[in-house]
User: Fold this.
Amino acid sequence: MRRQKRYATKKDKTTGKVTRAHRVIAAERLGRPLLPGEIIHHRDGDSTNNHPDNLLVLPSQAYHAHVEHHLRCEKRGMAFLFPELLQGVKEERKGTLFDGILPVQRSKRTTAARRIRWC
Assistant:
């Protein structure tokens, strides 16, 4: 049976809302609130290590699952065809979390353009 991860929490004294500490730290370092879909990844895998240099903001849960999968495969010795894609996740960076944000690559087509099918 898999052991459940433990996360430190912080309680906002004005609202009484309890939030995970790593999300609060990331939002403070970014200077803006986190978007609902953004995920905070702990580089060293230790969910109790909330040092700002250990936190990485990822754009979605799907991207986080993709990164975790490839990191686990690499740990088991499986070769990865494009190691440069995970370079930003694995390298040790100093500075703000802005350095650690990986850009989301979205299609430039609008939702209306997606609905139109050209024959």
In short: The chain is about 30% helix and 10% strand. Residues 9-104 form one domain. The CA atoms of residues 47 and 97 lie 17 Å apart.
